[in-house]
C-alpha cells in the first residue's frame, strides 16, 4: 500500500482514532490545540498540506496560498493564534473552492461564516471576528509552519472533523493506519458488548 492510499483510507475515520493511533506510536504532538475547530460541526477535510506563514492580519498570505494551491490540497496557515484581525472569509473560500482546494486550517480568525457554510467549504479556525485584515504585504508559503501547536511540513496529510485537526507525515501513514484498524476493531467489540448489556437493561 502506498502512503497516499493509506492516508486516504484514514480520511473516513474519526480524528480521535487517528490521534489515538499516533499517541500509541509515541507521537503526542500531532493533534492541534482545541482552539482549532470547524466553523460548522458537519465539516470534514482531508488532503496534503500547502503551508502558509502569515503575519497577524496580513491577508496577503492567504492570497499567496490561493495562487499556489493545487486541487486536493489543504491550506494550513500559521498566524500564531492571533485572532484580532481576520485572515479568511467568504470570498477566499469561494476562490479556494473554485481552485479545487480541499479546505483550510487557519490558526487565526475568519468571518462571513454564512457564505462559507452555503458552499460547505471546509474551514477550520482558531476564532471568528468581523474585524478586517490589515492588508500588509507579508507572508510566505511552502515552508514548515506551526499551526495549532503542531509543526506542519508541506505535503503532510491533514485530517479535520468536528473534534479538531490531526496531522500525519507521509512516512507515518501506513503504520498509523495499522494502529487505527486495531483501535477500531477493539473499540467496536467493546461497544458491542456494552450495548448488549444496555439492551438487557431495557435501555
Q: What pattern of helices and strands is seen along the backbone?
A: HHEEHEEHEHEEEEEEH
| Strand segment tally | 11
What is the distance, rounded to the nearest whole angstrom, between the alpha carbons of the first and last residues? Answer: 42 Å
Shape: globular
Rounded mean pLDDT is 96
Largest sheet: 9 strands, mixed
Integer-rounded radius of gyration: 18 Å
Task: Please state the oligomeric state of the protein chains shown.
Answer: single chain
- How much helical structure, as a percent, in the residues? 25-40%
Structural class: alpha/beta
Proportion in β-strands? 25-35%
The unreliable regions are: none
User: Treating each run of at least 4 consecutive H or I residues as one helix, how many helices?
Assistant: 6
Amino acid at each position: 500500500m502506498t502512503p497516499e492510499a493509506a492516508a486516504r483510507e484514514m480520511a473516513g475515520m474519526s480524528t480521535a482514532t487517528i490521534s489515538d493511533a499516533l499517541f500509541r506510536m509515541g507521537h503526542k504532538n500531532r493533534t492541534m490545540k482545541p482552539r482549532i475547530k470547524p466553523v460548522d460541526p458537519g465539516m470534514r477535510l482531508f488532503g496534503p498540506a500547502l503551508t502558509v506563514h502569515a503575519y497577524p492580519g496580513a491577508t496577503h498570505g492567504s492570497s499567496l496560498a490561493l495562487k499556489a494551491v493545487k486541487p486536493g490540497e489543504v491550506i494550513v496557515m500559521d498566524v500564531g493564534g492571533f485572532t484580532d484581525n481576520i485572515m479568511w472569509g467568504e470570498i477566499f473560500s469561494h476562490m479556494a473552492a473554485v481552485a479545487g482546494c480541499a479546505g483550510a486550517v487557519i490558526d487565526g480568525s475568519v468571518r462571513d461564516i454564512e457564505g462559507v457554510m452555503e458552499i460547505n467549504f471546509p474551514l477550520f479556525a482558531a476564532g471568528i471576528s468581523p474585524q478586517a485584515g490589515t492588508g500588509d504585504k507579508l507572508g510566505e508559503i511552502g515552508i514548515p509552519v506551526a499551526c495549532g501547536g503542531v509543526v506542519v511540513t508541506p505535503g503532510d496529510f491533514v485530517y479535520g472533523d468536528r473534534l479538531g485537526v490531526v496531522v500525519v507525515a507521509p512516512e507515518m501513514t501506513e503504520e498509523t493506519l495499522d494502529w487505527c484498524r486495531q483501535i477500531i476493531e477493539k473499540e467496536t467489540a467493546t461497544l458491542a458488548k456494552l450495548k448488549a448489556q444496555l439492551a438487557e437493561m431495557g435501555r
